[in-house]
């Protein structure tokens, strides 16, 4: 049997009783007061530490077998020794400790660029040591923890919510109107005050439970300052409910501010004081419920959940379990899980880990985009790459690295081979071109449509036709009263005759020959005025340009009725030929070419399916839609906004027209809304993604 001396423990370490674990065994907390760190240890570790002064593993094992029911091995003692050594809980060797600690410090700090990156992502600046002040001030806040104040706050919540509901229009209007530079500044000030009160709530509650609060200051998350309070001392508490009170104190403080600020806004008259409490009554609710109460980041909600589940390092343990589950599902290693839990908690932790990953990807990508747009373009692009590399790419690359190290097992596993085959199949489906179908909303209408619009100052003088009448080409459609312009016409005709006579006699008169150029210009002007007068008169007698059916004639229209300028009075619809059109976005229209075949389906699945052929594609994007029929707000497919009666697309769309390859007499004479399916070019599914990524890079790469 070999003996060796165990290194002694540091003398300043403290040992405190902890809550019972989920298994029923007692736990203890090991305190490092120098670094203000705490370590949860189980019963086995506690019994070994109690006998650490015996000096060697064999004596510790003999004492354990004699005094406890534990039957441990030498490896258990060595594991505890390694834990103590790794966490610097052993008394340092005066000879070798300086060199070892320097090496440990260099390894922990990493290279200069790693230190710079860590300081960019997160660092703390302690500002005050509030423990003495809190000892004196904490009793003054005792009324906040009273049952009477809790009842009053609940009543304030009910009353404030009722009053705000009754004034919801005013509340929502004030909220919408507060997004101004001054309003945003007020929100920033309110958020700063609320966060300071949040940390004060943690500190006062911790001090009320007898804990020490060594520091308060600012923590910088991606250079964004947020206040923090060091409440690690709560791990000395052996009551889990007390620790949860400290963890929830910040959220509770914010909710108290939100409740009373909401009630104050509802009862105060209009004025400066009401404007001051409004930011507190809005930002506090959002900041508390959406950020601090979330268990997906290491904020208050996370620590409350971890303590309620009695699972320190909840995220790390859930992530380890989820990674093990993923590897088992993909490769079937049949490895032991990192920890054993009851079935419900096992599944819950895996789902929780996936929820945290999805939430963090969304948040980190959002932060990266915010950083990119906040700084100047070059610096923003650099910081965006850092954010994405550290928070998104690095965890994924780490898991892929583990898979590479397990490649021999993956290759020899039946499930692993099946996963590889499925992955290659998905890659092929992503990269190999496939026939595509382009879909879009479309309108089928007669090819010949002539709308009759009223001229200026028009009065209906005659209606020779009725709704649905068959019209021949050249037939009068509607008669408008012609303005009194007979004298003007006679004057122009006389002027034209005079100018023609003078131009014809210019060869016999020297003075007329000198003015011949002027005479010709005057004659051309007079003839143009007469032609414009005749054209204007023709607008009052619109004739059918083709044969068809008269539609949309207002049944209340009578002779003598005045109509507005450019008001549509009737529509002449040609018989027979139909055409169709649609609008496609920039990326979709690339896959369509003139001559492609398509099919038109009526909305509601009624009527025949018509065969179409792409007849034309506009080269330029459409600036305005021909009618609101195409707008998404009117049931169309194009997101658009309306301005002064015109509809403007929100993004670039191109008009595509079709010719109808088959007859459909039952659809003739009317416009029909439906869907068009175009047999477009073959394209790999990944092409669109690559093209969009390349377009984004090309657009953002310009400096």
What does this structure look like?
By secondary structure, the protein is of the alpha+beta class. It has 5 domains: about 15-110, no CATH class; about 115-310, no CATH class; about 310-410, no CATH class; about 440-445 and about 575-700, Elongation Factor Tu (Ef-tu), domain 3 (Beta Barrel); about 490-540. It has 22 helices and 21 strands. The strands form 6 sheets. It has a 6-stranded antiparallel β-barrel. A hairpin with a 7-residue loop joins strand 16 and strand 17 (about 610-615). The chain is elongated and about 140 Å long. The relative contact order is 0.06. The model has no long low-confidence stretch (mean pLDDT about 80).
How would you summarize the topology of this molecule?
Blueprint: E1 14-17, E2 28-32, E3 37-41, H1 43-50, H2 57-67, H3 74-86, H4 97-109, H5 112-121, E4 122-128, H6 131-137, H7 147-166, H8 168-177, H9 181-208, E5 216-221, E6 224-229, H10 240-267, H11 272-292, H12 300-309, H13 314-331, H14 343-374, H15 377-405, H16 407-412, H17 414-431, E7 437-446, E8 449-453, E9 458-462, E10 470-471, E11 479-480, H18 486-504, H19 510-514, H20 516-539, E12 548-551, E13 562-563, E14 568-574, E15 578-585, H21 586-589, E16 597-602, E17 610-617, E18 640-643, E19 646-649, E20 653-660, E21 672-679, H22 685-700
Antiparallel strand pairs: 1-2, 2-3, 4-5, 5-6, 7-15, 7-21, 8-14, 9-11, 9-13, 10-12, 12-14, 15-20, 16-17, 16-21, 17-20, 18-19
